[in-house]
From TrEMBL:
Domain of life according to the entry: Bacteria
UniProt keyword Hydrolase present: yes
EC class (word): hydrolase
Enzyme Commission number(s): 3.4.11.5
GO molecular function, one term: hydrolase activity
The reaction(s) this protein catalyses: Release of N-terminal proline from a peptide
Record-linked PANTHER family: PROLINE IMINOPEPTIDASE
Keyword terms of this UniProt record: Aminopeptidase, Cytoplasm, Hydrolase, Protease
Principal location class: cytoplasm
Protein's name according to its UniProt entry: Proline iminopeptidase
Domain AB hydrolase-1: 35-301
Length: 323
């Protein structure tokens, strides 16, 4: 069947701590349940294009927007909103609460970019609720990955990285390159009480995001979502918050892979993904006997060819489970 323009159901789930998360459903209620976990942190569901990566005639697809972003409330673009309860453990609990609310016994879990980290953290916490896993642009948000995407990749984009670091040095917070982590400096800037400081830092962060994903994506393009200050501030604030804490994954995901043994998975990654080099997907695959690693030689941090592989992986899982 063709995807409709509106979800079949949607709502807000009170998850405690004064937080409510937006969720939506697509497909058929009696289909194989599947969860989509968006990237970012703070990336939102966007225009819900993720639904096209599933066969909606046989799948019950659920998407949700993580704490503090999108249609979830309160929104972290408001500086008065605390991040004290916005961490991976709370997001994992939110997912499990949503599963219980919707009466789903177990589901296929999909994660994209940061969403793959969160999907893995959820699966490790609740392996009995996982029918299978599909990850796209694989990350585990380890310290090495965070330091690469915020520091090391500057060897490939030296002009852009110099601009990013210079802004932090000139912001008056005591940061100097070579003395401290740049990601921690930007987390500090995004928590600054002066709205002008936060806005300026979010613009620099957005420029860096567009730069490091440009290889494999046809060159540098400005993401039009940055025009929405509310989105830009939430994305930059949440990303720097999570990355400065190494994704709140302690111990790191790769040190807990025995928890996922027996669960089938497909890991889809672009060879030209400079933001998240393929070594992470390879390490995950090597530690996960039931996983299949698909390396797309032409794509970077997501592209048309990878999207086709993503849909094929979900269709294969749904077909096997429905059978």
């Amino acid at each position: 069947m063709q995807a409709t323009e509106q979800p079949s159901r949607c709502g807000m789930l009170d998850v405690g701590d004064g937080q409510s998360v937006y969720w939506e459903e697509w497909g058929v209620r009696d289909g194989v349940p599947a969860l989509y976990v968006h990237g970012g942190p703070g990336g939102t569901l966007g225009a819900s294009g993720y639904r096209h990566r599933f066969d909606l005639a046989r799948t019950r697809v659920v998407g949700f927007e993580q704490r503090g972003c999108g249609r979830s409330t309160p929104h972290v673009s408001d500086p008065a909103v605390s991040l004290a309860t916005n961490d991976t453990a709370h997001l994992v609990a939110d997912i499990e609460g949503l599963r219980e609310e919707l009466g789903i016994e177990a589901w296929i879990v999909n994660g994209v970019s940061w969403g793959s980290t969160l999907a893995l953290a959820y699966a490790q916490a609740h392996p009995s609720r996982i029918l299978g896993i599909v990850l796209f642009a694989v990350t585990t948000t380890s310290r090495a990955e965070v330091d690469w995407i915020t520091e090391g990749v500057g060897a490939i984009f030296p002009e852009a990285w110099d601009r990013l670091a210079s802004h932090a040095e000139q912001a008056g917070i005591g940061y100097r390159r070579g003395h401290g982590r740049l990601i921690e400096a930007y987390a500090q800037l995004m928590a600054f009480p002066d709205p002008a400081v936060r806005d300026a830092a979010s613009r620099e962060w957005a420029m860096w995001e567009d730069t490091h994903v440009s290889i494999g994506a046809g060159g540098f393009r400005r993401d039009p979502r940055w025009d929405d200050a509310r989105f830009r501030l939430a994305f930059s604030g949440l990303t720097t918050h999570y990355w400065s804490h190494d994704g709140f994954c302690d111990p790191p995901i790769l040190q807990r892979m025995e928890l996922l043994h027996g669960i089938p998975a497909t890991l889809i990654h672009g060879r030209r993904d400079i933001s998240s080099p393929a070594v992470t997907a390879w390490g995950l695959h090597h530690a996960w006997p039931e996983s299949t690693l698909v390396i797309d030689e032409g794509d970077g941090h997501g592209g048309a060819s990878m999207l086709e592989r993503w849909r094929a992986a979900n269709e294969d899982l749904a077909h096997r489970l429905a059978g």
